[in-house]
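notes to self, project folder thing:

trying the whole complex as one job this time. last attempt i did each chain seperately and stitching them together was a nightmare. three parts in total, labels are on each line so i dont mix them up again. if this works i'll redo the older ones the same way
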Amino acid sequence: MSGIIAARLEQLGIDLPTPAVPVASYVPFVIVGDMVTISGQITMDSGQLKYIGKLGDEISVEEGYEAARLCAVNLLAQLQVACNGDLDRVKQVVRLGGFVNCTADFTDHPKVINGASDLMQEVFGDQIGSHARAAVGAASLPLGVATEVEGLFEIG
Amino acid sequence: MSGIIAARLEQLGIDLPTPAVPVASYVPFVIVGDMVTISGQITMDSGQLKYIGKLGDEISVEEGYEAARLCAVNLLAQLQVACNGDLDRVKQVVRLGGFVNCTADFTDHPKVINGASDLMQEVFGDQIGSHARAAVGAASLPLGVATEVEGLFEIG
Amino acid sequence: MSGIIAARLEQLGIDLPTPAVPVASYVPFVIVGDMVTISGQITMDSGQLKYIGKLGDEISVEEGYEAARLCAVNLLAQLQVACNGDLDRVKQVVRLGGFVNCTADFTDHPKVINGASDLMQEVFGDQIGSHARAAVGAASLPLGVATEVEGLFEIG
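result (full assembly):
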């Protein structure tokens, strides 16, 4: 790994993990043409779940931001595999779908999912990293994690 | 603006707003090839949030319908920018993703998100305006709004 | 109907229903190029709703699995129409979006949505049937159903 994006990841101190194996009967990503659809990623860090709980309750907005950032790191780890190791092939971050495990009165979903969006912009820059997004509240999430983020990417 | 769709919007009495700036670190839409992916739009009306609250509680189904319609107007405002001002370039409304901020026992999500779907059919007609859709309940939504709708469109 | 996939459906004892008419102002699917986007399907079985209720409450994980499988059968029924009756035209199951109507402390969304994912793999095999996925908890779902699943498919 020695491309432009690999260097930026190193600058940012981000060490992409070995991608998580799905916890169910599906695959981490599907490539159709130039588009990579990546399954919803949760807050797995070196094989351990982090950020278990709800926004609006035991998880603060700051922790939620870090949780979403971790989901985005896991998206990048899958994307790197989809690109045969070369993230310089990424032409556009198209869409992130962000789900926040939260209480009924929580309103700061954008600030939480910014953790994922900011990472994409830091890694890929303003042009390639800018993406469309939906950020909504989930009644609950798999294994009790605070955030889940799925992604759609264009590669060359 | 003087196309067929512009005329229909005028007939319908719909004045597209200046598109809202995202409340977070992402962009309103991304174009890849002929496909426009538009970020989740909320109930912003002339710079003011409307329809704050939950379906099944303080927001009626009729108000929810209007909330979803307002989200769809905001989708069109973004789409108009994506089309360089010419909505006649829209070839197909492909998908709407509708999220309803609601109580645990609410069941009328379809009637609510119809506010967005009906608008698409009114503006673009039965062929271009017909779209696939998902309508689900959210534990809560950004800033406490009653509805959020994202969209996927094909343009020419 | 006499193709490879039709034979597999018969082997599996799956009789695809006449596709459900949407309960609202949208269409069951939209085709753009080779991509079929199918609206969120619920637990309609021969014109009757099944699996009404919440995971974590009156619906068990096993029932939720069957509910998601039923949603997937309904996706296939729509997909068959999109393929003019010939499911052998399906080149890839690209993405399933799975929503689980559940309590705030439910954590087994993956096991539930596996009901839909497993069906795709049984019907289309490991290559074509493998897909990306998001599985999240919904505060509630249309008509009170336990699961809703939408899908994206590539056809040839």
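what i see at first glance: Chain C has three helices and seven strands.
need to look closer tmrw
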